[in-house]
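Section 3.1: Structural characterization of target chains.
Under the original work plan, the team committed to producing a structural model for every single-chain target entering the pipeline before any wet-lab resources were allocated. The record below documents one such target. The sequence was received from the expression subgroup and is listed exactly as submitted; it comprises 220 residues.
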Amino acid sequence: MIRVLLVDDQPLIRSGFRALLDLEDDIEVVAEAGDGAEGVALAKEHLPDVALIDIQMPVADGIEATRRIAADPALAGVHVVILTNYGFDEYVFHALRAGAAGFLVKDIVPEDLLHAVRVAARGDALLAPSITRKLINRYITQPLIAGAGTGLKDLTSREREAVALVAHGLSNDQIADRMVISPMTAKTHINRAMAKLHARDRAQLVVLAYESGLVAPGGS
C-alpha cells in the first residue's frame, strides 16, 4: 500500500486529490495539512511514502517543507512531489535542489496523477527529458556550488557514466542499452552513485551532476 500525505492550503484541492487517490486499491491518503510546517509534522507522524506538497503556502512554503523533510534522516523514505499551478518555474527549480523527487501541475489528468504517485513511491524521479533540458538551461548561467563535486572521486567510471546518462533524462532501460548491461546492473550503478553522493533520488542526482561539473550544460 502506497501511503500519501497531501499538503495544500486549498481544502478543495486536497479533497479532490483525496477522492481520486482513495479510489485506488494500492494507494491510501494517510493525512492532510494546510501549510508546510504542519505537513512536516505530519510526515514525521505518519511516515508516508509520497508527500504531495503545494509550492506556495503560508507558514512554510513547499520549498522549506521539502528542505526540512530532506534534511531529516528519519524521513529518508518520504518522496516529495511538488504541486504547482504554473509548470516548471523558479520555485520548482529551488524545490528540486531542496530534495523534491519531481513536480506535478495541478491540472494534471487523473491517470497521470496516479502514475506519478506510483513512480515517486518507487523512488524514481518525475523528470521527463523536457524538464531535464530546462534544468540544463538553468545551469548554463548557474555558478557551481562550492564542494558540489566532493563525492565524485568516490564514483567508479561506470557509476559516473550512469549518472551522466541519468542527467540526460534516460530511463534505466535506456541506460542499460547505452552501457550494454542489464537494467538491474544499471539500477545498481545508479543506486550506488546516489549513496556516495548523498542524493535522495534521481532528481537530486541530476542536480548534483550539473552542480559538480560531471555533466556540462549542452554536452552530450
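The domain at 146-212 is CATH 1.10.10.10 (Arc Repressor Mutant, subunit A).
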